[in-house]
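Pipeline run #58 for the internal structure catalog. This entry was flagged by the ingest filter as a single-chain record with no existing model, so it goes straight to prediction. Upstream metadata was stripped on purpose; only the residue string is passed forward. Reviewer on rotation: M.T. Logging verbosity set to normal.
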Amino acid sequence: MARYKLVLPPERIAQSFSKLIVPMIERICGLNLETRTLAATRDALLPKLLSGEVRVGEVNRAKSTTG
């Protein structure tokens, strides 16, 4: 790869691009973490819901007392 020529934008354009794109990348990373958290919660609760061990009303009550 070292022998390939690379075109770089002027510093001002690179900085403007970074200011625009960095918040988007941070949001994507945050949403990815939230997705993993939600999937883990789903995986923990779904078997309990299907078996009747936990009912939806109980989950809602527990959420309102902790949140």
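catalog note: The chain has a mean pLDDT of 90.
catalog note: The helical segments are 11-51, 56-66.
status: ready for reviewer M.T.
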